[in-house]
């Protein structure tokens, strides 16, 4: 079937039937990849099965997100182009700001930073798979790109699942993709126009790592530009091949780490040790009972060791970027607010030699 790159101007039923035909040919093809093959967004693909095994829910984040806690143990998934982060636990300790623009889930098992102003549509899906019935809540931005997903596990409460769908069911069971204007990112200023001394002073004056992004904005620099210009006291480039090694070192020494993976609308965090590391082709994977990471190493373009001052001393991280300068994954030592960075993490993070500058 030559379904690739077909643009669907007809009905959702046409799209659904073409998708099912594609799945017959490639049973393991994920919805995200199928959408690309069919020339539509993933949200459009999911919406094509409304009335079959999918229900559109209301985008009432302030009430829907706390209600997910009633499901019990779930698996949450957040991804970007090159990395997938999966974490199991209970969706609890949820906070949505009064403005409705930000949300937090802060618990020992599920830890999320949610930028809700970019969230658009949400669907409840019940699908029969080779592994049995799969139930999920899937959230998309206005471009139809997945922002965040929540999958039920074998111990989730199915009665709560049914009542949740009934309560949050949208009155209109359809999906019209909004006419979204493309997002234009500001071009980086040339390096010679950056006040490097001012950047270094502002960096050295940080008291809280949470203020880092605001500092970059105030200095008028992108994240990667700041890393390039601030000096090796604060940031050093590393060989991209060193990234799997830091996971391996953390696993061997059982150093608990924090693994941040996100997109424009959600950041998901794992805090704790990692154990079971596996390669599958160019994919590097963490396959632990409660935490899975799938990292496409072919997408890695730069890795940086970054040091930021804080109220308890230096905080050391590894930051990983793709060809476009977007963050793929960030690694920190596991720590609580107000507690200094772990010595074993710092030793591990500092062990890899920095790249020599190009001459």
How helical, in percent, are the residues? 25-40%
Q: Uncertain runs with pLDDT below 50, 5 residues or more?
A: 1-9
CATH architecture annotation of the largest domain: 3-Layer(aba) Sandwich
Radius of gyration: 22 Å
Number of helices: 10
As a percent range, the share of strand residues is 25-35%
* Helix-strand string: HHHEHEEEEEEEEHHHHEHEEEEEEEEH
> Given the helix and strand composition, which structural class is it?
alpha+beta
CATH superfamily membership of the largest domain: HemS/ChuS/ChuX like domains
Short description:
With 359 residues, the protein is α+β, with helices and mostly antiparallel strands. The chain contains ten helices and 18 strands.
Describe the fold and architecture.
With 359 residues, the chain is an alpha+beta fold. The protein has two domains: 45-168, Heme iron utilization protein-like fold (3-Layer(aba) Sandwich); 191-351, Heme iron utilization protein-like fold (3-Layer(aba) Sandwich), CATH 3.40.1570. Helix content is 25%, strand content 31%. It contains ten helices and 18 strands. It has helices at 12-25, 31-38, 42-47, 61-67, 158-168, 196-204, 212-219, 223-229, 242-253, 343-351, and strands at 54-57, 73-79, 83-90, 94-96, 102-106, 111-115, 119-129, 132-141, 146-152, 235-238, 257-262, 266-272, 277-280, 283-287, 291-296, 302-308, 315-321, 327-333. The strands form two sheets. It has a nine-stranded antiparallel beta sheet. Strands 4-5-6-12-11-18-17-16-10 form a nine-stranded antiparallel beta sheet, sandwiched between helices. The chain is globular and about 60 Å long. 32% of the residues are buried.
């Amino acid at each position: 079937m030559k379904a690739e790159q077909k643009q669907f101007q007809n009905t959702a039923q046409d799209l659904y039937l073409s998708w099912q035909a594609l799945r017959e040919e490639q049973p393991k093809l994920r919805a995200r990849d199928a959408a690309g093959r069919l020339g539509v967004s993933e949200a459009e693909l999911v919406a094509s099965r409304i009335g079959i095994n999918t229900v559109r829910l209301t985008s009432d984040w302030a009430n829907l997100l706390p209600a997910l806690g009633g499901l019990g143990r779930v698996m949450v998934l957040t991804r970007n182009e090159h990395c997938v982060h999966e974490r199991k636990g209970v969706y609890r300790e949820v906070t949505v700001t009064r403005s409705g623009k930000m949300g937090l889930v802060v618990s020992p098992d599920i830890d999320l930073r949610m930028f809700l102003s970019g969230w658009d549509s949400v669907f409840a899906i019940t699908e029969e798979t080779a592994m049995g019935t799969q139930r999920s809540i899937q959230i998309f931005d206005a471009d139809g790109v997945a922002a965040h997903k929540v999958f039920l596990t074998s111990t989730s409460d199915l009665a709560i699942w049914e009542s949740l769908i009934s309560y949050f069911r949208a009155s209109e069971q359809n999906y019209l993709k909004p006419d979204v204007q493309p997002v234009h990112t500001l071009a980086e200023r040339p390096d010679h126009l950056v006040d490097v001394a001012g950047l270094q002073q502002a960096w050295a004056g940080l008291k809280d790592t949470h203020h880092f992004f605001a500092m970059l904005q105030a200095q008028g620099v992108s994240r990667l530009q700041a890393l390039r210009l601030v000096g090796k006291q604060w940031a050093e480039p590393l060989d991209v091949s060193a990234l799997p090694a830091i996971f391996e070192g953390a696993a061997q020494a059982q150093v608990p780490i924090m693994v941040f993976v996100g997109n424009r609308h959600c950041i998901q965090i794992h805090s704790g040790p990692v154990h079971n590391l596996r390669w599958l082709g160019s994919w590097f994977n963490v396959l632990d009972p409660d935490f899975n990471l799938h990292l496409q190493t072919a997408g890695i373009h730069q890795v940086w060791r970054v040091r930021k001052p804080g109220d308890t001393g230096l905080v050391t991280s590894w930051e990983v970027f793709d060809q476009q300068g977007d963050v793929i994954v960030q690694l920190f030592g596991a720590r609580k607010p107000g507690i200094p960075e772990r010595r074993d993490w710092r030793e591990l993070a500092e062990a890899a030699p920095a790249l020599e500058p190009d001459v």
